[in-house]
Structures are given as structure tokens and as C-alpha cells.
Amino acid sequence: MEGLAALARCQRPFELEQALVSWLAELSNCALVQLYLLDASHSQLPLCCQWLDGHTEAGTGQDGLGESLLAYSLSQNTPLQLNELDRSLHATPFLPTGQPPWRSLLCQPLLDRQQQISGLLVLASRSRSINEDLTASLALIGTIALAQLQALKQAGLVHQAPTPALTEPASDSEHGCFGLIGESPAMQQVYRLVSKVLHNPVTVLLGGETGTGKELVARAIHDYGSRRTQPFIAQNCSALPEHLLESELFGYRKGAFTGANQDREGLFDAANGGTLFLDEIGDMPLALQAKLLRVLQEGEVRPLGSNQSHRVDVRIVAATHQNLYGQVEQGRFREDLYYRLSHFPITLPPLRERGADIRELALHFTRETCTFLQRSNCRWSDSALAYLASHRFPGNVRELKGLIARALLLCDGNLLLPEHLQLPNTPTHAHRLTLREQLDKVERNLLNETLQKHNGNQTQTAQVLGLPRRTLLYRMQRLGIPLRTRQQAEGARK
Ligand SMILES: Nc1ncnc2c1ncn2[C@@H]1O[C@H](COP(=O)(O)OP(=O)(O)OP(=O)(O)O)[C@@H](O)[C@H]1O
């Protein structure tokens, strides 16, 4: 009780983190207690604070997601206990070095008030084991501490611990984020959205023209998220005829059809615990759409030829280059599935909207292709870069990649020149947006974002934007934004 009272008395986030680790050290009799908290983008798990041999210390900010043991415990949302650390094969470089060595370890994921994973407690001891019964108390105390921490942060007290900037998404060594290249505002918006879904299982719908990086983003959501240690399976829905796609996705039982000589599990089973990427979802046949909807709603699959369903835990990321709502209007795509899939849409910008990213992408593809061709890296002459910059690219990143590969094959030396670049004669005016189209785009994005923030509630959205509701509805209709009501949105979520 005194420990709880000490937490309640803290007035600053960092004081509270210190009070938490020192109380838990006392409670568990462990010489080391570390507190890791996910950053705002959920892409890093910095060490915020630790208790070590009788002293509290500010964390180093070292990213715990780089440690496979910690990433595993976090992604599984389950306590992890290792009692014979000295004989374990698991690497534990996140534990401070010293003598005598650590011999037991306990990782406890922490949930916040919304039951979202928010961090991890790590306890380590130099004795042979840690009391297993501790996990329930740790989870409870952690939740209370997190709620208090959240309240202190919301009260505007600045967190002084050396954690990374809260609003910045994690960045990679190259010019971009999550393994993607590009720093244009359009790509920054993509990174912001990706960071929101990394550590929760929400269904994501990726849109954007062909070759704009939808599959790459789907992989990034998986690779940088809490399911990274589980399988990522991709299936193109337009690549197979209906019956083959059905058996591929749902699996079958022996005798389900001629040639089904044995049971076979489907891709939902193969992706269990991980992510299933359904590309070209707009081409999925209507009958299969109904089956997919059932999986999304009930989390259960029924293999062909079986009368029993079983549960699966799969995060769906779907992608399409088509206007999916247009498909709904034409009766080619189920409206209920559309709403179910589009809980969290992310649209990839075409290349023509990425400005200076084109140069970075070109340099990246040059390095990548040279490595592939096993030749030393080629430099770009200023004139070739200027030529590239003068070209108005259409939407497709894959085309740019192909263009660079061709240029490298044509280039005998180590310097790329304009003549190596065979830039297509793009009918530029066809891709240039008029002022009206650009304004519509900005307005569409703003309305979509505000609606999303208010769970599709049109009255609140209209209030926030200072519009009469009727005007909002008119503008939504004009911009092709589906007019679903909040009840419909909630209905679709059930
Ligand atoms: N931001 C990016 N950074 C690095 N490479 C990229 C980026 N965007 C796209 N690419 C590359 O462009 C190519 C096409 O990307 P991808 O296959 O993900 O596009 P897509 O939108 O899924 O295509 P499709 O619509 O044909 O399925 C890939 O080789 C990918 O690596």
C-alpha cells in the first residue's frame, strides 16, 4: 500500500517511473528492474528508467524492440520467465553487465487503461529464480502506474527522461522511415499513419496507384510492428481463379473435391499470429468476399469440406489500386466488407507528388541494383540528376526502378550520364493536377482525417470544421467520401 501511495504522490512522470522501479525492486527482491515504454509512434521501446543494485537511474533510451526476447514478450503480450539464464541460449545484452552474472529474468508486458500494450517491465535477479506469483501483481501495479503516468503527461508536465522525440516517427539510416525511401510531406503522412497501426491489430486498407509501394508498406507494418516474429503471408487475389483462391485461403479437408487427397491448411492458418496481405482485394470474387467478411467478424475460418470452424488470429492488410467504393457502387464489391476493411485507410502517393524523393529513390535504386549486379556503385553526373529532376514522372515507383536498372546496364563506366536514361515521353499534361483537383484533394484528406478522428460521427466532424452538417454531407458526396453514419460505422465494426 505504501508503494501505491508513493506512486500517487509523484508529481512528475520521471519521479513516478523511479518510484515504480524502486518499489518493484523491493517487492520482488530483484537487483534489477527496468521500465521500457513504447514511444508515441509505437515504433521504439526506449528504456526509460531502471533500478540497479540499490539505485535508480535514468534510462539510456536504448531501444528494447531491437532485443528479440523483449520484442517477443511484447508482441505475444505474455509474461516471459527464464530461470536458468546462465544456461539459456537467449541473448540478453539489454541487461547491464556486472558480477555475479544474472541468473533469472522476468518480462512483464504492461497494458494501459485502453488495454493497449504500452510497455514492458524487466526484472532480473542473481539468484536462481524469480517468484512466478509476482506476474499478476506486476501487471496490476504496472497498469495503475501507467494510468497515473498518462494523467501526469496529459497535465502538461514535461517528461525529462532521455526518450526520443515523441512526435517524430522512427527514422532509418537512409532518407525515409520503416525501410521506405522518401521524406516528402506526402510520405511523412504515410509514416504517421503507419506508426499508428504498428502495435494494434486493426485492419488496414492500402490504396494508391500501381507500383506506388503498397506491398512494401504492408511488409513495413508487419516488420516494424508487434507481429514481426510471426509469419507475413501475401496473396494476390487476382492471380487465381475463384475455387483455387478459396482453397488457398481457407484450406481444405481430404475428399473436399477431386484431387484433395489429404488435409491442407490455408493461408489464414499459415499466417496465424501474424499478418495476411491480400493484394488486389478489389478483384476478390463476391462469394469469397462473404467468407472473408465472416473471418473478419468472427475470427474463424472453415476449410472446404469441413463442417467445423476454428479460430485464427490474423491481422489483415488489404490493398487495391482501384477505387473500392466505386466498385461497391457498381455492385462488384460488398459494401459491408468495404466498411469492415476501410477502418484504417492509408493511401500511397503517386511518384509525381513526392518531389525530391525521386532523387533519393533514384540513388537508392542505383545502390541496390549495383549490389545486385555485383558491380561497384555508380555515381550520378550532375547533368543526369538535372535531367531526372526535369522529367515529370507519372505514379509508378516500379517504373523508376526499371529505368535505373536499364541505365546501369547501358552505362559502361561508373558515371551515369543523361544518355543512359531513356526517359519515356510522358504525356505530362495528363498527370498534372489542375488547381481545382489539388484543392479537392486537400479537402478530401482533411474531411477523411477529421471523420476518422471522430469515429465517423458527422455531427462532431461538422462542428469541428465549423460547417453546418448538411454542408458537410454535400461536400462529402461531391468528393466521393462514403456517407456512412456512425451507427453504420459501428455496425460494420461488429
Ligand atoms: N518508398 C519506397 N522506397 C523504396 N522502394 C520503393 C518505395 N515505394 C516503392 N518501392 C519499390 O517499388 C516497387 C513497387 O512497389 P510495390 O510492389 O510495393 O508496389 P505496389 O503498390 O504493391 O504495386 P502493385 O499495385 O503492382 O501491387 C518495389 O520494388 C518497391 O521496392
Automatic annotation (TrEMBL):
It comes from Halopseudomonas oceani. The keyword Cell membrane does not apply. CDD domains: AAA. One of its GO terms (cellular component) is cytoplasm. Pfam families: AAA_lid_14 (PF25601), HTH_8 (PF02954), Sigma54_activat (PF00158). Keywords: Activator, ATP-binding, Cytoplasm, DNA-binding, Nucleotide-binding, Phosphoprotein, Repressor, Transcription, Transcription regulation, Two-component regulatory system. Its main location: cytoplasm. The keyword Cell division does not apply. This is Sigma-54-dependent Fis family transcriptional regulator. Residues 180-409 form the Sigma-54 factor interaction domain. One of its GO terms (biological process) is phosphorelay signal transduction system. It is found in: Cytoplasm. GO terms for molecular function: ATP binding; sequence-specific DNA binding. InterPro entries: AAA+_ATPase (IPR003593), AAA_lid_NorR (IPR058031), GAF-like_dom_sf (IPR029016), Homeodomain-like_sf (IPR009057), HTH_Fis (IPR002197), P-loop_NTPase (IPR027417), Sigma_54_int (IPR002078), Sigma_54_int_dom_ATP-bd_1 (IPR025662). It comes from the Bacteria.
